[in-house]
Amino acid sequence: MIENVGNLQSVRKSIKLLDATLRDGGIVNSFNFSDDFVKALYKANVESGVDIMEFGYKVSEKMFDKSKFGKWKFSKEEDIRAIVGENKTDMQICVMSDVGRVDLKKEVIKKSDSVIDMYRIAAYINQIPTAIEMIEYCHKMGYKTSCNVMAISKNQESDMRRMLEIVGQSPVDIIYIVDSFGAIYPEEIRRVCDMYMETAVKYGKQLGIHAHNNQQLAFANTIEACAMGVNYLDATVCGMGRGAGNCFTEQMLGFLKNPRYNLERMLRFIRKYMPEVKKNNVWGYDTPYLITGLYNTHPYAAIDFIKANRDDYEEFLRQIQGY
Amino acid sequence: MIENVGNLQSVRKSIKLLDATLRDGGIVNSFNFSDDFVKALYKANVESGVDIMEFGYKVSEKMFDKSKFGKWKFSKEEDIRAIVGENKTDMQICVMSDVGRVDLKKEVIKKSDSVIDMYRIAAYINQIPTAIEMIEYCHKMGYKTSCNVMAISKNQESDMRRMLEIVGQSPVDIIYIVDSFGAIYPEEIRRVCDMYMETAVKYGKQLGIHAHNNQQLAFANTIEACAMGVNYLDATVCGMGRGAGNCFTEQMLGFLKNPRYNLERMLRFIRKYMPEVKKNNVWGYDTPYLITGLYNTHPYAAIDFIKANRDDYEEFLRQIQGY
Question: Which is deepest, A77, A256, B146, B199, by most CB within 10 Å?
């Protein structure tokens, strides 16, 4: 697997571009996308050759005030089917479940009854045992699975290695490198990829990357990881995602050389649908995210800072530095 | 020199951070910065440890309609002195001259009579002989010089090697890697750095990098080049510069580990002075720049597209693709 890295001109068929706009972008607008938007995004993703589309979170309706969120916080089978029918396309469908926010045994139906192809299990490193249980259950029900260990920039390498050994021995298909804080530099991403790749090769797993743009490195880190042999590449349209947002789907469609990818179709979607979303929501690189990224902290403080229309960056810097 | 690369934690004293806000940012607002802004930027650069501040272009007043440009298109000695006095600081001052836009023999006074420390000579690869003459003249007059060969993504490697041999044999101090089109990916930047470094080592020159953000890679490419031994790093405040803009000065101040750099002082400047500039001018990453960067073309078409409030990205894509 590690040899299969290609170069800037070649086509690597093992690459899977995953559009996570509804899920990570949903964090920005509380998952309040119109059906029209979701249908158009589904169509644009199919037509532009996106390999996997993430529809949202699947978490328990009992644990959240339903009135505060759009339907893609819960991604119910019937809601996905209302968009995709039987999904007679080449594009796969996934949802994400957070450890501790759902009892999958009550939510997950058999794969043969579902249009969902993959469950992505998101966990912090201390939640790995529960994540493994969830992965095993989804696997047993017939789904592909990924394990997305979040905020890895906060973890010690020795703990990451132990985590990788445990996850490697599970039935999971893909292990994701997740830079939740947008704190990792390209030269570090290459080292992280090396570490994850050891496990991937040892246990026959695929690797994925989910980057954030706090330091304007989401695209750079994604293509660097790609060059290191990481095959599952997360992106969102216009980078829509929590705080500084993500790697841009349209950048990946332009960058990847496989003829299946078609930037033009996605540009049409962006022209028709994104101005409205941009008008009503705020995400993307801004000075406060630079500060939280630089100091390797969760971006929630930067999100609050921006929402409050604060501009006292110096005070915010001291706050994040812990003075 | 090549060994002196350090790591993410170490301090490399040979690094010089160059703030090019007035020059590359001046392209955005036709160099119409208020004196108050320029004085405050000078102070902020000094206080935040910036090593070199670029004041603008020095081009011939005869070749341009003076009424259409602010004074930093011409960067006259008396105008710089009105801001910096005798510049009794650790920060050096530079200006940029384009080949063919100025007769430096009529403009450049002796270094002992000037507060300018360095002339940066910008040229396309076919203009190198003239650039060398300009470099020799500035050198003879007592100045440091750099040679900034623009738009290198358009050049053949064999031509670049010939150019480097010629520039290497000149008295120039610094050879700059300039990605005018924001078209170069990090793995290519590393190869370009290797090529330039051969010349740098052979002839005892320093290297610099000037990146553009068309594909959101300006910061990534700058720190990758830095890790390869490139010492002169260009940036602008809030990335202000032509089209998609540049690497952000504040990102570099946060990234670089030398205690001389102080992000907080620059944040204060950003808070007080940049909102007004942002309100009246447009620059920074946007979809049209992705397209010109991807197809390795000059961003002027994207600048025009945005100025015209066009949104027909698909048509623009076909235009840039040459259909």
Answer: B146
